[in-house]
Each structure stands twice: as C-alpha cells, then as structure tokens.
C-alpha cells in the first residue's frame, strides 16, 4: 500500500498510458498471442518499478527475460534470446541480491543509489568489447536475422544490466539506447509481418519509461545524498 502511495500522478499517467498503447496496438495489429500482450504489460510495469528503485522490479525482470527469450526465438533473433536468458537474467538475479543488501535507510522499496568510480565504468565498457565480439560470431554462426542490430542490442544490454548491478543511474540511460536498437530491430521484423508492430510500440513505451527512470534515479541520488 505504501508503494502505491509513493507513485506520483505523472508516473501513473506514464504507466497507464504505456499499458493503453500496448493493448491498443496489440489488437490493431491483429495479434492473437495473448502471451505477448501479458509479457509486454509485465515489462511496462517492471520498468516503472525499476524507475522507483524497487527491488521487485528486478524480480519481475527475471520473468520478462523468459518471455522475451521465447518471442525472440520465434523470430530467429537468437542474439536477443541468448542475451536475455544467458546474460540479462543471471545478472538480474545478482542485482536482486545486491539491491536487497543496499536498501536506502532500511527501506526495501527503494535501493540506495551508488556513484561508481570512473575506473568502474571503464571496466564495464572494456569488458563489453570481448563480450560483444564473442556474441557476434556466435550469432553469425546461428544465422541470426539482422545480425548488426542484434549485436548492437547485445552490447547495450550488457552495459545496461551491468550498470543496474552497480546501482548506477546510468543503467536506465543504457537501456534507453538499447530500446532504440530494439525499435529498429522489430521495425525490420514488422516489415515482413505487421503483428510485430505491436513490439515496436512496446519498446517505444519502454524508451519513455527508461528515460524517465534515468531522470528519476538522478533525482533519487540527489535526495539520498542531501543532509
């Protein structure tokens, strides 16, 4: 109950508007797989929770990873499938433990925002290079559709989930860049099947939520660091 009271009017509008756009696009695009609809709404809700720094968002992201892995497999976007099932989900599990260990002033509904050192950010970006190169050749061998954009998605996903583990506000900025890559990726898929337009709308909603998440985490950091 306290959590729902903490959600602002703007957040309710962002959340409700996102769900409305997802549901509307689902039916307008002639989709019939309600698992996709449930997964998209689940993801929309997950990002609002993450934007609030709530560890429940990390828990929900584990289930979203399973859903998105399935959708990616059906479209032969093996990069997305492998990324979410073998990278995003395990790191999210580690993030759950990390967030639970670092609540802000003992509040489980808000994680303590960290300010990693420059060398930590540098390590994340440097480590992302061999990870991305490795994934590129694996995905190429698997015959992944739209290989270039799938590889970009791997890179941005790895950076985003790593920064989330570090409790850095920049995790949301990285996910916003990842959303752009996914919008392009699923737009290419929608060129052959209009049902995938619903996923373009879904990740457009995610983009707005991740941008808000970045802004809100910066606000949270200022508030938490104030005397």
Give me the secondary-structure topology.
Blueprint: H1 2-6, H2 9-28, H3 34-51, H4 55-74, H5 78-101, E1 103-104, E2 107-111, H6 118-141, H7 147-165, H8 170-190, H9 197-225
Describe the structure.
The chain is mainly alpha-helical and 227 residues long. 79% of the residues lie in helices and 3% in strands. It has one domain (2-225). It has nine helices and two strands; from the N terminus they run αααααββαααα.
The shape, in one word, is globular
Oligomeric state, counting identical vs distinct chains:
single chain
Radius of gyration: 17 Å
Look at the structure and give the mean pLDDT.
Answer: 89
Helix run count = 9
How would you concisely characterize the structure shown here?
This protein is mainly α and 227 residues long.
Provide keyphrases for this structure.
227 residues; mainly alpha; two-stranded antiparallel sheet; 9 helices; 2 strands; 79% helix
């Amino acid at each position: 109950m306290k959590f729902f009271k903490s959600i602002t009017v703007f957040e309710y509008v962002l959340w409700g508007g996102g769900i409305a756009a997802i549901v509307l696009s689902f039916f307008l695009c002639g989709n019939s797989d309600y698992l996709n609809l449930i997964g998209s709404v689940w993801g929309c809700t997950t990002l609002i929770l993450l934007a609030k720094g709530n560890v429940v968002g990390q828990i929900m992201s584990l289930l979203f990873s399973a859903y998105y892995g399935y959708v990616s497999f059906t479209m032969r976007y093996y990069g997305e499938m492998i990324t979410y099932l073998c990278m995003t989900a395990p790191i999210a599990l580690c993030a759950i433990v990390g967030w639970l260990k670092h609540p802000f002033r003992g509040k489980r509904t808000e994680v303590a925002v960290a300010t990693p050192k420059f060398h930590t950010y540098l390590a994340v970006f440097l480590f992302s290079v061999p990870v991305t190169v490795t994934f590129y050749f694996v995905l190429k061998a698997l015959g992944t559709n739209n290989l270039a954009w799938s590889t970009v998605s791997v890179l941005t996903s790895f950076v985003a989930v790593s920064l989330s583990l570090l409790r850095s506000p920049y995790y949301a900025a990285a996910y916003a860049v990842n959303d752009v890559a996914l919008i392009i990726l699923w737009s290419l898929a929608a060129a052959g099947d209009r049902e995938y337009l619903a996923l373009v709308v879904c990740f457009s909603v995610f983009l707005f939520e991740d941008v808000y998440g970045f802004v809100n985490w910066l606000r949270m950091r200022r508030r938490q660091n104030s005397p």
